[in-house]
Predict the 3D structure of the following.
Amino acid sequence: MTILQAERLSISFGGVRAIDDVSLAVEPGLVFSIIGPNGAGKTTLFNVFSGLYVPHQGRVRFAGEDITGMSPHRLARRGLSRTFQNLQIFFRMTAVENVMVGRHRHEATGILSELLHLPAVARQNRRTREAARAALGRVGLKTEAERPAGSLPYGALKRLEIARALASEPMVLLLDEPAAGCNPVETQELEGVIRSIVKDGVTVVLVEHDMRLVMNISDRIHVLANGRTLAEGSAAEIRSNPAVVEAYLGVHGAHEAARAHG
Amino acid sequence: MRALVTHRLAALAPVAAIIVALPAFFPSAYYYRVAALVLIFALAAVGLNLLMGFAGQVSLGHAGFLGIGGYVVAIGPTYFALPSWLCIVGGAVVSGVVAFVVGRPILRLKGHYLAVATLGFGVLVAIVLTNEAAWTGGPDGMSVPRLVLFEWRVRGSDTWYWVAGASFLVGAVLALNLIDSPTGRALRAIHDSEIASSVLAIDVARKKLTVFVVSAVYASVAGSYLALFNGHVTPDIAGFLRSIELVAMVVLGGMGSIAGSLVGAAVIVVLPQTLTALHDYEHMVLGLLLMVFMIFLRRGVVPSLAALAGRPA
């Protein structure tokens, strides 16, 4: 049983193969990490999964359905949500409004009832706001709810994106480098947040450079290098894979990864 | 009490009070006329503000919809003996349909490309209105029969002041309602990040089209009022300059500020009237003043002053 599956995906930009014949299968309810050196194609793969890029070859399946080339908003409606490595925050809105946008999938919209602000719209607004505040609480941002997003520090914005994605109640959540720019304490908090998300039955696909976090939390790790699959396995298998150590982890990374459980 | 102060419509209360109280200070009917024009343009500006200030999509051709609204209330009663009020509604429907058809292909464009495409649309409408002389009277325009509501002939600047004032307030309430709804939040989200919006299940193209149609309907109703108020309409109503004026109203008053649209309309309509005393230097001073406004109140009059006063607009 897989919830998200890539079958022999390839995509190239200007003759350069960003992803080259990559296949992987994510099982539901687990943390599936994708690691690799910069330029390995990790974010490109996320962009294919979330419908922002259409692969030139291969298929993507989500919850048993072929979703290759499906537009992002349709995929989101089906329960696939994501965060971004380079923040994509709605800076002109408050923190809670950002997260309210995440509820869009669950909201009924109708231009006439919205223009007239019918009681149903007001009731729905209240429900949306409550759900958004709850999602902010899960990432520790409840007290910042009414602040303009533009005034929040970087670490808070990373968590705001997670809250926004969570608010959509996805089946699969793609997290693109959530720990980038976070200090060790924030990273540890992040680990707790991810664990709580998985506990709720959400499948998490993680792209991350912080090897401690990856090794601690991943049920399965897929290693990319130059757009191709280098290896896949459990944390222990990846840690001891000589090809991975050579291409990516290196001496420092292997050291860090080895200490992950220590 | 606090709920009352923070209510989404709270900002409109002082605006409504000003509209009601202002005529007490009018020394002559001429002031009613100018104020009515301000309110009519403010209605169009509120619609354009939904498109530009909230959804972040520019239109340099919105006077095209003023033109459609204006000519439907001229042609409908003249050639088909339709009641004028029905033609206001009919014009809005025609504008909405035209916006839907035109918007589908051009709203895929972004930034400068969208600006040029909408500009082309506005120019097209003005050319059609000028050339179809058999229906429109050509460049000289045509006269517009008076609006009659339940046997009440709507005429005179003071009457139009109240009609325009009430319509502006209704338009502002509808706009504020829309902003505080899922579609409104989606539009603001699209303004900041289309990519993030799309992965949060927002159909970006459809939402842009929705707000384009809504803003076209606002402009159309304002265009109908303009034609009925003046009793005459010429292709200038759909001209490029008119479109630019509408954009200037939105930007000057404040993108994303409904009250700002009224202020912007007031500045753009009233300034040229007060500057006529300067004769040859009128346009120079007007241009200079607009530049000074934008340099010192760069976010627009209302948001900039609100920020200075230390509270959100």
In short: Chain A touches chain B through 40 residues (CB under 8 Å). Chain A has two domains: 1-79+171-262, 91-169.
